[in-house]
From TrEMBL:
Descriptive protein name: ABC-type polar-amino-acid transporter
GO molecular function, one term: ATP binding
Lineage: Bacteria, Bacillati, Actinomycetota, Actinomycetes, Kitasatosporales
Enzyme class: translocase
UniProt EC number: 7.4.2.1
Domain of life where this protein originates: Bacteria
Catalytic activity entry: a polar amino acid(out) + ATP + H2O = a polar amino acid(in) + ADP + phosphate + H(+)
Family in the record: Belongs to the ABC transporter superfamily.
Residues of the ABC transporter domain: 5-249
Record key words, sorted: ATP-binding, Nucleotide-binding, Transport
Keyword Nucleotide-binding listed: yes
PANTHER family: AMINO ACID IMPORT ATP-BINDING PROTEIN, PHOSPHONATES IMPORT ATP-BINDING PROTEIN PHNC
Organism annotation: Streptomyces albireticuli
Gene3D superfamilies the record matches: P-loop containing nucleotide triphosphate hydrolases
Length: 253
C-alpha cells in the first residue's frame, strides 16, 4: 500500500539554523499519526513542509505518492508553479492552535467559503455540505453565530469543519487543543476521535498523551529536528527506550 505521507531525509533550515535534520517517516492511509516532542523540536515546521508552506532544503517529501513542491524529470527537480502548489494544497486540511476563523463571517459562512472560492462550488451545494459538517462537529445550532459568539472549543470545531469542507485526503493538526481552556478540550478531541473512526488520515501534533495512546496508531517523538523514537503509542509512551523520550514524558504525563 502506498504511504499517504513519506519523508526521506527531510532537511529544513532557516538561514544558518537547521530545524529539520533528516526526518524519515511514513504515514499510511487511514492512520492516526501523533507527533510529540518539546517546543522548538521542529514539529510545526514539519507540518508546514507537508502543507507546502515551507520548502524542504534536502531530502524528499511525498504526499499520496507525489513529491511536495517539486516535479522530477530524470534526475532533476523543478519547483512547482504557485498554481500547481495551490491545487495540491487543496487536498490537505490544516487546523492550527489558533482557530483563525474569518471574524466577520458566521460559522456557516466560514465553512462554505473555501469550496465556493477555491472550487467554484454553488452556494446551495456548499451550504448543504457545511450544515452536515457543522452537525458532525456538534454545532448545527450555532450555524448563524459569529466567531466572537462562540467559545474557543466551538471555534476550533468550526475550524475543523471548515478544513473538512474541502474534502481533504489528509488532515494536519498542530496542537489543536493547546490554546483551549481545559474544560473545552474534550469536545475537540471527541470530534478528532470521530474523524479517526471514519478513517481519515491524520497527523496530530499534540501534548494530549491520552489521545495519542487511545486514538493514535503510531507516535513519533521528535527532538532537535530528528526522530528520536517511534512506534506503537502504548510501547513508546509506557516503555520509552531513549533517555530524551523518558525525560520529555516525565514532564508531560
Ligand atoms: P515546534 O513546533 O516543535 O515547537 P517549530 O517547528 O515551530 O518547533 O520550530 C523549530 C525551530 O525553528 C525553532 O527553533 C524556531 O525558532 C525555528 N523557526 C521556526 N520557524 C522559523 C522561521 N520562519 N524563521 C526562523 N526560524 C524559525
Ligand atoms: Mg509548534
Amino acid at each position: 500500500m502506498n504511504a499517504m505521507v513519506k519523508a526521506e531525509g527531510v532537511h529544513k533550515s532557516y538561514g544558518a539554523v537547521q530545524v529539520l535534520k533528516g526526518i524519515d517517516l511514513e504515514v499510511a492511509p487511514r492512520e492516526v499519526f501523533c507527533l510529540i516532542g518539546p517546543s522548538g523540536s521542529g514539529k510545526s515546521t514539519f507540518l508546514r513542509c507537508i502543507n507546502h508552506l515551507e520548502k524542504v532544503n534536502a531530502g524528499r517529501l511525498y504526499v499520496d505518492g507525489e513529491l511536495v513542491g517539486y516535479r522530477q524529470k530524470g534526475d532533476r527537480l523543478y519547483e512547482l508553479k504557485d498554481s500547481e502548489v495551490a491545487r495540491n494544497r487543496r487536498d490537505i486540511g490544516m487546523v492550527f492552535q489558533r482557530f483563525n476563523l474569518f471574524p466577520h463571517m458566521t460559522a456557516l459562512a466560514n465553512v462554505m467559503e473555501a469550496p465556493i472560492q477555491v472550487k467554484g462550488e454553488t452556494k446551495a451545494v456548499a451550504r448543504e455540505r457545511a450544515m452536515k459538517l457543522l452537525d458532525r462537529v456538534g454545532l448545527a445550532d450555532k450555524a448563524g453565530n459569529y466567531p466572537s459568539q462562540l467559545s474557543g472549543g466551538q471555534q476550533q470545531r468550526v475550524a475543523i469543519a471548515r478544513a473538512l469542507a474541502m474534502e481533504p485526503k489528509l488532515m494536519l493538526f498542530d496542537e489543536p487543543t493547546s490554546a483551549l481552556d481545559p474544560e473545552l478540550v474534550g469536545d475537540v478531541l471527541d470530534v478528532m476521535r470521530g474523524l479517526a473512526e471514519d478513517g481519515m488520515t491524520m497527523i496530530v501534533v499534540t501534548h494530549e498523551m491520552g489521545f495519542a495512546r487511545e486514538v493514535g496508531d503510531s507516535v513519533v517523538f521528535m527532538d532537535q529536528g530528528v526522530v528520536v523514537e517511534s512506534g506503537n503509542p502504548r510501547d513508546v509512551l509506557t516503555n520509552p527506550q531513549h533517555d530524551r523520550t523518558k525525560a520529555f514524558l516525565s514532564k508531560v504525563l
